[in-house]
Amino acid sequence: MTDILVTNDDGVQAPGLLALAQALRQLGEVQVIAPVRNQSASGHKKTLFQDIAVSQTQLADGTPALAVDGSPADCIALAALGIVAWPARIVVSGINRGGNMGQDITYSGTVTAALEASIQGVPAVAVSLADRHADQIAAYERAAGAAVAVVRRVLEHGLPSFTVLNLNVPPGEFKGIRLTRQGLRIYTDELERRGDVYRIVGPEPGGDINQIGTDLWAVHHGYASLTPLHLDMTAHRLLADLAAWDITL
Description:
The chain is an alpha/beta fold. Helices cover 27% and strands 28% of the residues. The termini are far apart.
C-alpha cells in the first residue's frame, strides 16, 4: 500500500508539487505521479482506448516520480489499475498555481484528480494557492503547511465515500482556516483571433466576495478555505418541481 500519493495538473516539474511532496513526508511515505506537462483546466478528462506513455523522472530535489502523458485523472486511474501500489491511504492533488473556487472546480484538473481518487475508493484532498504568478517553491510553503494540517486530520478521521476536500490558500501570511461552501465565480474571458486560429484569453476570473461563508469570501479576507465536495450533483430541490411538470411519453 502507498501511504500518500501526490499528483497535480501543473505538470510534474511544477514547484507546487515539489513543495507539497516535501511537506507531506512528515506524515508518511510519499509517491509522486503527475502529468508530464501542464494540464490546467483539463477537467475530469479520462483517456480511454488510447496509448498513455509513462516514464520515470525526478523532481528538483531528486524525488523519484512517474510522469504521465495524460490528464491528472489519468494519473489516478492508472495508479488504481496497478502501476503503483494501490490503494493509497490518501491522494493529495496540488499545489495548484491559482485558486480553484466556485465553478472552477468543474474545470480544475487539480480537483478532478481528487474526485477520481474518490471514485476509486480513496480519500483525497485538492490543494490550491490563490496566486497565478507563484513560480518558486518558497511561495508554496505556507500552503503546503496548511495541506499537512488537513491531510493529517483526514488520515485520522477518513472521509465519506465520493467526497473530497478542496483547500484554497491565499498567498503569503493568512489568518487561519475557514470551513466554506462553494462560491460564485465571474468569468471575463475574451476571444483572440489570428486568421483562422482562436484562443480563449482574458484576466483572472473574479467572483462574489461578499457572500459570507463562501470559498471566495474566505480567501479574499485572508483565510484558507476548506470546502467539502461530493460527486452527487443531483439538484435535489428541483426534483419536486420536475415531478409537477408531469413529463410523460
